[in-house]
Write a structure and sequence with these properties.
InterPro entries: Ig-like_dom (IPR007110), Ig-like_dom_sf (IPR036179), Ig-like_fold (IPR013783), Ig_sub (IPR003599), Ig_sub2 (IPR003598), Ig_V-set (IPR013106), Zig-8 (IPR037448). The protein is an alpha+beta fold. The chain folds into three domains: about 80 residues; about 100 residues, Immunoglobulins (Immunoglobulin-like, Sandwich), CATH 2.60.40; about 90 residues, Immunoglobulins (Immunoglobulin-like, Sandwich), CATH 2.60.40.10. It contains five helices and 21 strands. Helix 2 packs antiparallel against helix 3. The radius of gyration is 54 Å and the shape is rod-shaped.
Length: about 350
């Protein structure tokens, strides 16, 4: 490189050789005949001048070297800046460029299975109190961060039975299943057609040393439909029936509700004048029968999804029967008054 040649040319010891020759001549002159009285003085001056000139040359060479070094450093910095700009421009279009990216963007470049040497930990944002209606499917969601090569197990606490390890099932009860999506942190215990005996505590356990676990509570409820009426109803022929059924504890956001008369499904097409109005989100249903007839008598049952049903019995009576019932009640009410009147008459006719 150019600066190396310049340094060699600058550091050539020519001035030092010139100084040495001059010093030799001065020393010879000092030792010549006729000059001995001042020989020591001349020798001391020659050595002093020589040392002074050598120091001057040394500092000049040092300044030259420092200047060349500064120039070299400046060139190096310029090259580094050019290289950095080139790499910055090329990496900015790469999917792996993240030098100035945020932490969330960098985390997206790291596979979920990579634990980075960190210990597993639970994500506590999942629901750990699960309510399931009788006969429905319950799902317990467990999320584990930085799992690595460890295994996740589900354990039933009441008998310490290991139900699943990974996605493998270790129970004869086929209602218990393990579910996991590849490259996700979620491990799900699925309980199909839950029964009252399934209620209790379940543990999501990670095979670390020592083991870590998180408890989940499963509650099984029995939903019941309810008809808002007496168990037996007497309806006059020709009038209307309006029955309301509710199922507030039915599972799920929407509930399908049905009406039966005895064993037959009641619908709008059963006969004219029947209307079924259901609000699945409100979990209510209304059965309206206009101008009831004697054939409408029977047992009416309301049923909802995964809920116990409820029933009422409807009696349809004729108008004549209704009037006869009213007359019979009136006669029974008048008999006491007749007896009292007879007693008064007997008292007045008794001789004095």
């Amino acid at each position: 490189m150019r600066w190396r040649h310049a340094a060699r040319a600058t550091l050539t010891p020519t001035p030092t050789l010139t100084l040495t020759t001059a010093a030799a001549k001065a020393a010879a002159a000092a030792l010549a005949p006729g000059s001995r009285p001042s020989a020591e003085k001349l020798l001391f001056e020659s050595v002093t001048n020589c040392a002074h000139e050598m120091l001057v040359e040394y500092f000049m060479a040092l300044l030259v070297i420092m200047g060349l070094t500064a120039t070299f450093d400046k060139q190096q910095r310029r090259q580094q800046q050019q290289q950095h700009h080139h790499h910055h421009h090329s990496r900015s279009h790469s999917p792996y460029f993240g030098f100035f990216a945020s932490a969330s963007e960098l985390s997206n470049l790291i596979p979920d299975s990579y634990d980075g040497g960190m210990d597993p930990l639970f994500d506590n944002s999942t629901n750990r109190e699960i309510i399931a209606a009788l006969g429905t499917t319950a799902r317990l969601h467990c999320r584990v961060r930085h799992l690595g090569d460890r295994a996740v197990s589900w354990i039933r606490q009441r008998d310490l039975h290991i139900l699943t390890i990974g996605i493998m099932t270790y129970t004869n009860d086929q209602r218990f299943l393990a579910r996991h999506i590849d490259n996700s942190d979620e491990w799900v215990l699925k309980v199909v057609s839950v029964q009252p005996r399934d209620a209790g505590i379940y543990e999501c356990q990670v095979s670390t040393e020592p083991k870590i676990s998180l408890a989940y509570k499963l509650m099984v409820v029995t939903s019941k439909a309810q008809i808002l009426a007496n168990r037996e109803l007497y309806i006059q022929s020709g009038s209307d029936i309006n029955l309301t059924c509710i199922a507030p504890q039915a599972p799920g956001p929407y509930t399908h509700m049905l009406w039966h008369k005895d064993t037959e499904l009641v619908s709008d097409s059963t006969r004219g004048g029947i209307r079924v109005v259901s609000e699945q989100q409100m979990k209510t249903s209304n059965l309206v029968i206009s101008r009831v007839q004697h054939t409408d008598s029977g047992n009416y049952t309301c049923s909802a999804d995964n809920s116990n049903s409820d029933s009422v019995f409807v009696h349809i009576i004729k108008s004549e029967q209704h009037a006869a019932m009213q007359h019979e009640v009136g006669v029974r009410l008048q008999l006491p008054h007749l007896c009292l009147l007879l007693l008064l008459l007997l008292a007045t006719l008794r001789p004095l």
